[in-house]
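Review form for a predicted model. The reviewer records the input and the model, then writes brief findings.
Reviewer: anonymous (R2)
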Amino acid sequence: MTLIQNPIIPGMAPDPSIIRVADDYYIATSTFHWTPGVQIFHSTDLVNWEFLTYALTQDEVNLRGTNTPAGIWAPHLSYDSQTHKFWLAYSHMQNMAGREFNADSFAISADSIQGPWSAPIYLTSIGFDPALFHDEDGKHYLSILEWETRDGYQAPGHIVIAEVDLEHGGIIGSWHRVTTGFTTRGCAEAPQIYHHNDYYYLLIAAGGTGYAHGIEMGRSRQIFGPYEPNPTGEPIITSSPQHLFSLGDPDAGHFERFDPRAPMQKAGHGSLVQTPTGEWYVAHLMSRPLPNKPLNPLGRETALQKMRWTTDGWLQMADGSNLAKLTTPAPSDYSSPKQTLTADIHTDFTAKVVDHHFMTPYHQQTTDWVNITEHPEHLRIYGQNSLFSQFNPAIMGTRATALTYTSQTALTFHPTHYSQTAGLGLYYDANNWLYVRLCQADTEDRTVLRILQAKLGERIDHRITVDIPDDHVALKIDYHDGWAQVSYQLPQQAEWSVLEAPIDVSYLSDEGVNGEPGEIGGFTGLFNFIGAVDAYQHVSFADFDYYTVKNYETEDLTHE
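Model under review:
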C-alpha cells in the first residue's frame, strides 16, 4: 500500500480548502500579511503537490499596517458545476484589538483556476472564515462564524448560515444560527457545508488554533438545521484526542496539550474531498514543533487524512481513530512509484519574470522597487522602509519548509549612507527577524557586513563587523532546529567564513512572537528573504546573483 507522507504542503500553508474538478485537485491556503494573497496548489493524484498561483494579485486588498496575525484569513475554494465557475471566498481581518475582530468577507470568481479572477463582491462583516455552498437547486449559501463580543455569551460565537447573492453581493433573507460547536472543545469556526446521502454535513474547526485544535462534524436534513452532532461527542480529526471541556474560551494555545513526543501537532481546520473512485479525504492544517519545545517556526502546514463513512452515515478516519497521522493511505488508483516532496528553491534570475515563490509582507511587488530587467541575470531590489515597517519593506521572501535547511545568496551593494543596507535574512513579521546585511561602517568610510536583529520589537545590533572591500559578498544562513549560523564568502575566498556564533532564533515561530499569555502569538510562519533598506532617499539598490534554499529533512520525516 502506498502511503501519503504529511505534510503534503510544508511551510506556511494553513486553513486548507480542497476541491476536485474533473481529475485535478486544488488547495487554497491563507496568506495573512503576505502578498500576493491566497496561495493555490495543484495535484492530479492527491499525493504530489506543487504551487500553482495566487488569487489576489491586483491590489484587491490593502495590507499596509496589518498587525500579526491579521490579513487574509481562511480562503474557501468551491466550484459551481452549473455555471462552471470557480469561487473563492475569504476574510480580510483588519483589527483584532480588544477582541473586537473586524473582518470584511468577499468572494471572487473565475472561469479558470489560473484566473483572471473577478473584482471582489462584498459578502458580510459578521465574522470570519466564510465558505460558499452551491446547492443542486441553483441556490448558494454562505456559512461563517458570527463573532461574539457580548460578555457572558458563548465565545467565540455562533456558526451561521444564510442564502447569498453571488451576483450583487450580500445575503438573501436572514442569518440562521445553527451551532456553537458539536463537542465541548468550544471555539467553533471555519464552517463548511457538504451534501451527502440526503444530509447536509457541517464541518467546523474547534478547540482554538493551538494544541487542542480539531475538526468537528454535525448533520441535518435541512440546510438551516437543526444540526445533530457526531454521536462520539469528540472531534473526527485532532492531534490531541483526550476529552477536553473548553467552552467559553474564545481561542487559547492550550499549551497543556503539547505532546513533546508527537511530530505532528495542532491538526484541525479541515476540508473534505472525494476522489473519482469514491474515496474520501480531509485536508487539514498541522504543525511540526522544534524538538521538545512548544514552538512551531514553520507555522501551520497542510496534511491529508483518508476518511470513510460509517454505516450510520458519519465520517471518520479510515483507521477508525481520530488521531491525525504523518502518513495516510494513498488513493487506490495511485500508481506512481514515489511521492515527490521537495520544497527546495533555486533561481539565478535568468528568467524574464521573478520566481513566483517570492512573497512580500504588507504591500505588492512592483517594478519601482524590485526589478529583473535593469541588470540582466540579477534581481535588483531598491531599498525602502526599515524592516520594522508594516508599510513598505523591500523584502522578497519564501516560506521556510523544513527545520533544517540552508539559505544562500550573493549580492553587490554600495551604500552611501548609514541607513542603506541589503542582504539575507529570516523573517516572521515586522517585529521579529534576523538580517545579515551590507552597510556602511559607523565611520562612513567603507562597506562592512553586520547582523541586525529584531526580537519582540526590540532592535539588537550585533557588533561583530567584517570589511567587504569590493561591495560584493556571498551570504549563507544554516538553520537547524531554531538556531541560525551565519557565514560569508568574499570573492577571493575558497571557503566560507563564520561571522559569529550560532544565534537562537527559535522565537521566530508562531508561539515565540508577541502573543498574550496563553495565546498563540501568531499563526503565519517563518520566511527566508533577500531585501534592501534605504531610509535616506530610496535610491540605493542591491543586485542579487542568485537565491537558493536547500532543505535537509523533508525527505526524511519520521513516520508514525
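Findings: The first strand starts at residue 3 and ends at 5.
Further findings: Confidence is low (pLDDT under 50) at residues 554-560.
Recommendation: see findings above.
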